[in-house]
Amino acid sequence: MTDTKTLRKSFFRNLIPSVTAMWVYSIYTIIDGIFVGKGVGSTALASVNIAMPFVNLIFASSIFFATGTSTLISIRLGQNKKDEANNIFSFNVAIMIIFSIVLLILSLLFIDKISLFLGATESTFEMVKEYLSIIVIFNGFFIVSYCLEVLTKADGFPNLAIIGVSISAVANIILDYLFVMKFGWGVRGAAIATGISQVASCLFFTLHFLKPISTLKFIKFRPSFNIFRRIIGIGFPDGITELTSGIVILIFNQSILKFIGENGLVTYSVICYVSTLVLMTMIGITQGAQPLCSFYYGSDDVKSLKYLFNITLKTIAIVSIGIFIICIIFAPAIINVFITSNDINLINQSIIIFRIYSLSFLLVGFNILSSGFCSSIESPMLATLISISRGLIIIVITLIITIILYGGKGIWIATILSEAICLLISLWSIKISFKNLIR
């Protein structure tokens, strides 16, 4: 086993850039919401929330590729097989570009139907369509940028990941201010700002892999269906976590419109922005440990794997409690950042609902860690079980049951129950994983 001091140092060396990168991604999404809510209005904020499941689809696609590729590359580097690592790296980039082009064509052809499917109403349809039409044009930069950011850490340059996403964030905030607040371009301006910011970070990360200092290089690759299958298989659990979050937003939006009304949708929009920050924090902590876990898995060092899991678990616990306390104490301030309204009842109700929902933040990190750890040691079936259970199956079942029992008010406790039930599945999956490792 590698000594604990070295492991701890490596963990935090990866953790800080990984979480920072995720925070930056989350924060400039939140900034979008703030500018749209303050600069355009609550209807526009609801429109962006309606479009968000499609954005989740784009991001989920990138996670599919990023997690699977990062795991395979880290294992190869742990085995000192650099040529194979470079082949996987280059092959993956080609796949992402082809995928993004197909997604662009199909999305533009069916943009009206997609907008209606997502839940656009008569008052929000044009804004939803306008936002999506621009976002999808930049989808390739979204996908490639995030994947290269993750692979930059696998390449041994975690600090560059912070720089890359910071460039993107600063560009997005400045352009949001100009396009939305100064030029008055509405949701179209927010979408253009987000797209251009992704172009900036994509170029930054691409340049890194063209420099001599990088271990991973663009080479003439050998296409392999087996590698493609393993990339998708390993990346599926983390990708499905993001994808199902979009599906859940869609289902929640429809349920809220039916049982509560558009005011409930405004409240849920705020919850989604904060929940995204929490989710990305937990994914960032998990992804900070994943390359190290994959490396030591490739080296057959089970004791180091156990240590890494334990230190990640403790980090998740501390951060989860801290986030929950912040949400309870500062709920009024958080709600008022997004909602500009003279409706005191809407604001007060939003504060109460937000505090109830924040109980789920105590549990979500443990489930994400369990799924991510299983992925890092090539146990995609267990990881997928956790991800699909928490991200889709259990949440839908609990949502139906709570609505039947409590009506519209039950919507706000469905996520808490879902995360609690999924925690039991996570504990069982981790127990099985460690038994397999020991064998």
From TrEMBL:
Keyword Phosphoprotein carried by entry: no
Keyword annotations from UniProtKB, A to Z: Antibiotic resistance, Cell membrane, Membrane, Transmembrane, Transmembrane helix, Transport
Matches recorded under InterPro entries: MATE_fam, MATE_MepA-like, MATE_MepA_subfamily, MdtK-like
Topology of the protein relative to the lipid bilayer: Multi-pass membrane protein
Membrane-spanning segments: 12-31, 51-77, 89-111, 131-148, 160-179, 185-210, 231-253, 265-286, 307-339, 351-369, 381-405, 411-430
Family per record: Belongs to the multi antimicrobial extrusion (MATE) (TC 2.A.66.1) family. MepA subfamily.
Protein's UniProt name: Multidrug export protein MepA
Taxonomic source organism: Clostridium hominis
